[in-house]
Specification:
About 25% of the residues lie in helices and about 25% in strands. It contains three helices and six strands, in the order βααβββββα.
Length: about 100
Amino acid sequence: AFKSKSFEDALAYERLRDILASRGIERLWELREYGPEYEEAPALFEPYYNGAEGYWSSGNLDWIIYASHESSVTVGGWLLGELKEMWPLWQAHVWTGVFD
């Protein structure tokens, strides 16, 4: 998990979309705490907390992003490795549970 603000500053949504496109992902799911849920094009992908916690993944479920009310963004699956390669200073932005 990473601090939301640091994650957004370091990895613009366009960069995340580029990663998904390089993997051939053409559709993904956005699941929100209070709904509605969407199947959407990666061009609409913006993983942030909007008052409802959110999850994003594609049909293979081999990656996930989770945006929480605690100012954190959690990344899993193959996407985590890709992000660490793109973001050399990621360790300085790990969410510790302390709000900044």
